Amino acid sequence: MHLVEPASAARELVLEHGFLSFIPEIAIERDLSAGRLIKLQIAALSPCYWDAMMAWRSGKRRDANKQLLLATVRAMAADWGQSG
Known about the structure:
By secondary structure, the chain is mainly alpha-helical. It has helices at residues 7-17, 29-34, 64-83.
Protein backbone atom coordinates (compact mmCIF):
# COMPACT_ATOMS: atom_id res chain seq x y z
CA MET A 1 0.00 0.00 0.00
CA HIS A 2 1.30 3.41 -0.80
CA LEU A 3 0.46 6.97 0.05
CA VAL A 4 1.65 9.05 -2.89
CA GLU A 5 1.13 12.74 -3.56
CA PRO A 6 -0.18 14.22 -5.71
CA ALA A 7 -3.18 11.97 -6.20
CA SER A 8 -2.58 11.97 -9.96
CA ALA A 9 0.80 10.29 -9.41
CA ALA A 10 -0.81 7.67 -7.16
CA ARG A 11 -3.49 7.08 -9.78
CA GLU A 12 -0.86 6.43 -12.46
CA LEU A 13 1.02 3.97 -10.22
CA VAL A 14 -2.20 2.09 -9.56
CA LEU A 15 -3.34 1.99 -13.18
CA GLU A 16 0.03 1.35 -14.82
CA HIS A 17 1.84 -0.80 -12.25
CA GLY A 18 -0.85 -2.45 -10.14
CA PHE A 19 0.01 -0.64 -6.91
CA LEU A 20 -2.44 -0.47 -4.02
CA SER A 21 -2.67 3.09 -2.77
CA PHE A 22 -4.58 5.45 -0.50
CA ILE A 23 -6.11 7.99 -2.89
CA PRO A 24 -8.81 10.60 -2.26
CA GLU A 25 -11.95 9.14 -3.81
CA ILE A 26 -12.75 12.39 -5.59
CA ALA A 27 -9.47 12.11 -7.53
CA ILE A 28 -10.46 8.75 -9.02
CA GLU A 29 -14.24 9.13 -9.19
CA ARG A 30 -14.38 8.57 -12.98
CA ASP A 31 -12.11 5.53 -12.76
CA LEU A 32 -14.35 4.02 -10.07
CA SER A 33 -17.51 4.72 -12.12
CA ALA A 34 -15.95 3.21 -15.24
CA GLY A 35 -14.76 0.12 -13.36
CA ARG A 36 -11.06 0.79 -14.03
CA LEU A 37 -10.45 0.94 -10.26
CA ILE A 38 -12.22 -0.57 -7.27
CA LYS A 39 -12.28 0.23 -3.56
CA LEU A 40 -10.88 -2.54 -1.38
CA GLN A 41 -12.01 -3.28 2.16
CA ILE A 42 -8.78 -3.61 4.14
CA ALA A 43 -9.95 -3.49 7.76
CA ALA A 44 -9.09 -7.15 8.34
CA LEU A 45 -5.68 -7.07 6.66
CA SER A 46 -3.06 -8.58 8.95
CA PRO A 47 -0.22 -6.22 9.98
CA CYS A 48 2.32 -8.70 8.59
CA TYR A 49 1.21 -7.73 5.06
CA TRP A 50 1.95 -4.02 5.41
CA ASP A 51 5.09 -2.54 3.91
CA ALA A 52 5.97 1.12 4.01
CA MET A 53 7.66 2.91 1.13
CA MET A 54 8.70 6.52 0.96
CA ALA A 55 10.27 8.06 -2.12
CA TRP A 56 12.14 11.33 -2.33
CA ARG A 57 12.12 13.02 -5.71
CA SER A 58 15.41 14.81 -6.24
CA GLY A 59 15.38 18.39 -7.41
CA LYS A 60 12.49 19.33 -5.16
CA ARG A 61 12.73 22.31 -2.85
CA ARG A 62 14.17 21.53 0.58
CA ASP A 63 11.70 21.83 3.44
CA ALA A 64 12.68 21.57 7.14
CA ASN A 65 9.47 19.73 8.10
CA LYS A 66 9.89 17.27 5.25
CA GLN A 67 13.51 16.65 6.28
CA LEU A 68 12.36 15.94 9.85
CA LEU A 69 9.72 13.53 8.57
CA LEU A 70 12.26 11.73 6.36
CA ALA A 71 14.71 11.39 9.26
CA THR A 72 11.98 10.03 11.53
CA VAL A 73 10.77 7.49 8.97
CA ARG A 74 14.33 6.36 8.24
CA ALA A 75 14.90 5.76 11.96
CA MET A 76 11.63 3.80 12.20
CA ALA A 77 12.59 1.74 9.16
CA ALA A 78 15.94 0.87 10.75
CA ASP A 79 14.12 -0.31 13.88
CA TRP A 80 11.68 -2.41 11.79
CA GLY A 81 14.57 -4.00 9.91
CA GLN A 82 16.22 -5.08 13.16
CA SER A 83 13.03 -6.49 14.67
CA GLY A 84 11.98 -8.43 11.54
